[in-house]
Specification:
The chain has helices at about 15-25, 40-55, 105-115, 130-140, 165-170, 175-180, 190-195, 200-210, 215-220, 225-235, 240-250, 295-310, and strands at about 5-10, 30-35, 65, 120-125, 145-150, 185-190, 200, 235-240, 255-260, 260-265, 275-280, 290-295. By secondary structure, it is of the alpha/beta class. The chain has a single domain (about 5-310), classed as Ribonucleoside hydrolase-like (Inosine-uridine Nucleoside N-ribohydrolase, Chain A), CATH 3.90.245. It starts with a strand and ends in a 6-residue tail after the last helix. One of its GO terms (molecular function) is hydrolase activity.
Length: about 325
């Protein structure tokens, strides 16, 4: 039986790989995509999602736009890692959409998809958590329809947008705290401590790009992202953060995870958006929240390549 899947996203180069991975995986049924501000403004994340949907030939999947700002405080800045349009300036290389944005907003779409589902739905938030926080706040009765959340975000040992904070959580710490700390939905958090260990090389990308026109179009979105990682980490490759979370949604247990107690720093000091993770043995974490800590990274890279290379022609 396939698992119904909703991806909440702010595309983003790694988001593009995540969406492609979901489209290529028979274990899940992608039933909806919702967009949120993040790497670029909402208008761009939504336009990117529509183009990616067209590339992946999944125009059957509704795409609904969501929050264009955080719950409380403005996002100080956008990420420059993904280029001017979020896709290394290459959005125009993707097919024109043949279906418009869904008239429903993101929260309404998620609500209606959950209400209609006859089995638990997995939601994979791979951008700021604003849409998901709003869903859980407005419709708490629907929590029982959510099988689990697989959240890409946070850093246990530091951040990537500040010394303390990872970009997604830092973009809306109040929303992240609502989802990760205050709620009781079964959740797996996939932090950058794990995703950074599954970087893929420029050579890996080039090989993937040769497998099909669709894969080649995906790899064609990576130029600015590659340049960023070369500049900031001296890495000749990229980190496909969001695809790692989708991989865990496709194959539950692919990532080893532990139940740590967690807080999100919502102060306005240098730690804002950072995670405070209590890893002491005498401080057991909540039953619903597990934090990914490890995996077979070579095996995970092989899984990503196998699925993404199966996308076929564009």
């Amino acid at each position: 039986m396939t698992t119904p899947l909703i991806i909440d996203t702010d595309p983003g180069v790694d988001d593009a790989f995540a969406l492609a991975l979901a489209a290529a995986s028979p274990e899940v049924e992608l039933i909806g995509v919702t967009t949120v501000f993040g790497n670029v403004p909402l208008a761009d994340t939504t336009a990117n999602a529509l183009r990616l949907r067209a590339l992946l030939r999944r125009e059957d999947v509704p795409v609904a736009a969501g929050a264009d700002r955080p719950l409380v405080h403005p996002q100080p800045k956008l990420s420059s890692a993904h280029g001017s349009d979020g896709l290394s300036g290459a959005r125009g290389t993707l097919p024109e959409p043949t279906r418009a944005t869904d008239p429903r907003d993101a929260v309404t779409l998620m609500r209606e998809l959950l209400e209609a589902a006859d089995q638990p739905v997995t939601i994979v938030p791979i951008g700021p958590l604003t849409n998901v926080a709003l869903l859980l706040a407005a419709h708490p009765r629907l929590k029982e329809k959510i099988g689990r959340l697989v959240v890409m975000g946070g850093g246990v040992n530091g951040g990537n947008i500040t010394a303390a904070a990872e970009f997604n959580v830092w973009s809306d710490p109040e929303a992240a705290r609502r989802v990760l700390v205050d709620e009781d939905v079964p959740t797996t958090l996939v932090p950058i401590d794990v995703t950074h260990r599954c970087a893929v090389s420029a050579e890996w990308l080039a090989e993937l790009g040769r497998t099909s026109a669709t894969a080649g179009a995906l790899v064609g979105l990576t130029a600015d992202y590659l340049a960023t990682y070369r500049r900031i980490l001296d890495l000749d490759g990229i980190v496909v953060h969001d695809a790692i979370a989708v991989a865990e949604a496709i194959r539950p247990g692919l990532l080893a995870a532990k139940p740590y107690a967690l807080e999100v720093d919502c102060s306005h000091g240098p730690g804002r958006g950072g995670l405070v993770v209590d890893r002491r043995l005498q401080a057991p974490g909540p039953e619903n929240l597990r934090i990914a800590t490890d995996t077979d990274f070579d095996g995970l890279r092989a899984f990503l390549f196998e699925r993404l290379s199966s996308l076929g022609g564009a």
